[in-house]
Write a structure and sequence with these properties.
alpha/beta, Rossmann fold, N-(1-d-carboxylethyl)-l-norvaline Dehydrogenase, domain 2, 3 domains, 6-stranded parallel sheet, binds nicotinamide-adenine-dinucleotide, binds uridine-5'-diphosphate-glucose, NAD binding, UDP-Glc/GDP-Man_DH_N, EC 1.1.1.22, 6-PGluconate_DH-like_C_sf, UDP-Glc/GDP-Man
């Protein structure tokens, strides 16, 4: 089966490489010439564990190709995936510019029966727009080419994208015909050998499933962040509460970790987009409005703790920030909570020294030149008055606290992910603040 994947970002490249892994003949297309040139040289444009191996193996095996020409690439393909970005527009709704541009080009190029599958996250009704755009192009060139559209939202997580794609919890496909259903069932058969379901449904339901899934997960996180903030007021420990509620299988243990707000290219934009979709239909999604508002506030919680610790005066203080990526195992810094914290620290007159194991290059594009980019975690804490742990990378989990004690000017740790042991830090002489817990350590008088 010959397949084209349009858009070679986090989703498109993983999709293309994983489909090629099953023996399919895949061509990945992108408008970004530099990206495609680098991919042809074996340079992977993003950090995603395991992606380099799978791309290299399939590229060398001839099953995976790269191109900047959509028109040439899609001609012989029976299935075309659209995996371009759908960033938030000014009003928060999904910007469909790239998706519809691709649809028009597909319409201008296909010559035989084709299934056009929308994999990008798009609002309900987008597949119908894609279909209309392709149809219009076909009519304009007077071509009677049979095609169908389908919706196949992607649920992979950055940092574990390969595993998520190869062993999905489920695959959701919205189709309108048995023919498209049979072809997509065949294509995805190798990925559901684990017994997890391939769920066929109508197209609007498939499109909405994606937003509902992300919104549900974001709701769990904002709910726990709200509870964490209440824990601090009541003298309770959110991690005990988390374990206490998570043991009930109806609630479950996953995605209830409090922190400093969810980030990334999906939850923030998809929650906002779904709120907008509802509003366009005269319906207020009140729960999601609160989820979004709680998340915006949560991104400021760590800054408030740091400012309070230093008696409201941060001018001249040096704060080390560990982690910029929105989560570990990715170089993606879109909507990362670290960016909000760093901006607030700089605005308050603090010096900021940052370190991230893989996101430093991305960070240099967006962070102010006043930020000091450290060469290692230890380098970042040199001369610092405080350490803020933002992203829970593995290499930050067991720091050499004693060595750091000598490097830091003042000894206080702000743990945005609740990964450190307060007792251990107290023994070495650090003050400790985390999320949703008032530990005895935190109640120590601030150091000068
Ligand atoms: N990143 C994730 O974890 C994730 C997971 C599931 C779904 N999604 C959704 O998948 C979609 C893609 O997300 P992403 O993170 O991979 O985006 P991305 O920004 O990493 O990649 C998008 C790519 O599309 C290319 N592109 C734009 N216009 C094009 C065109 N006309 N022709 C060819 N290529 C074009 C861009 O150059 C870019 O390389 C979005 O709708 C997103 O919401 C993302
Ligand atoms: O208990 C938790 C779990 C996650 N997060 C935060 O939530 C954000 C998103 O994390 P995660 O969902 O792991 O990463 P993404 O790669 O953004 O994946 C989400 O967004 C993708 C794009 O739509 C979907 O495909 C995935 O299913 C969905 O999990 C990150 O900032 C995490 O730190 C928490 O604060 N607490």
């Amino acid at each position: 089966m010959k397949i084209a994947v349009i858009g070679t970002g986090y989703v498109g490249l993983v999709t293309g490489a994983c489909l090629a892994e099953t023996g399919a003949d895949v061509i990945c297309v992108d408008v970004n010439e530099i990206k495609i040139e680098r991919l042809k040289k074996g340079i992977i444009p993003i950090y995603e564990p395991g992606l380099d191996e799978i791309v290299e193996r399939n590229y060398k095996g001839g099953r995976l190709q790269f191109s900047t020409s959509l028109r040439e690439s899609v001609r012989e393909c029976s299935v075309i995936f659209i995996a371009v970005g759908t960033p938030p527009g000014e009003d928060g709704s999904a910007d469909l510019r790239h998706v519809l541009q691709v649809a028009r080009e597909i319409g201008a190029s296909i010559t035989g029966y084709t299934i056009v599958v929308t994999k990008s996250t798009v609002p309900v009704g987008t597949s119908a727009k894609v279909k209309a755009a392709i149809q219009l192009e076909l009519e304009q060139r007077d071509a009677a080419v049979e095609f169908e559209v389908a919706s196949n939202p992607e649920f992979l997580k950055e940092g574990s994208a390969i595993d998520d794609f190869l062993r999905p919890d489920r695959i959701v496909i919205g189709t309108e015909s048995d023919r498209a259903r049979e072809i997509l069932q065949k294509l995805y058969h190798p990925f559901v050998l684990n017994g997890h379901p391939l769920l066929f449904m109508d197209i609007p339901s498939a499109e909405l499933t994606k937003y509902a899934a992300n919104s549900m997960l974001a709701t769990k996180i904002s709910f726990m962040n709200d509870i964490a903030n209440l824990c601090e007021l009541l003298g309770a420990d959110v991690d005990a509460v988390r374990k206490g509620i998570g043991s009930d299988p109806r609630i479950g243990t996953r995605f209830i970790y409090p922190g400093i707000g969810y980030g990334g290219s999906c939850f923030p934009k998809d929650v906002k987009a779904l709120i907008g979709t509802a509003r366009e239909n005269n319906y207020e999604l009140r729960i999601l409005q609160s989820v979004d508002a709680v998340n915006d506030d949560q991104k400021h919680v760590m800054f408030a703790k740091i400012r309070r610790h230093f008696g409201g005066e941060l001018a001249g203080k040096t704060i080390a920030v560990w982690g910029i990526a929105f989560k570990p195992n990715t170089d993606d810094i879109r909507e990362a909570p670290a960016l909000v914290l760093i901006e607030s620290l700089l605005a308050a007159g603090a010096n900021v020294q940052v370190y991230d194991p893989v996101a430093m290059t991305e960070a240099r594009y967006v962070l102010s030149e006043n930020v000091l980019f450290a060469s290692s975690a230890l380098d970042a804490v040199k001369g610092a008055h405080a350490l803020a742990l933002v992203t829970e990378w593995s290499e930050f989990r067991l720091p050499d606290w004693k060595k750091m004690h000598d490097l830091m000017l003042n000894h206080v740790v702000f743990d945005g992910r609740n990964i450190y042991n307060p007792a251990e830090l107290q023994e070495i002489g650090y003050a400790y603040h985390c999320i949703g817990r008032m530990s005895s350590v935190e109640k120590l008088e601030p150091e000068v």
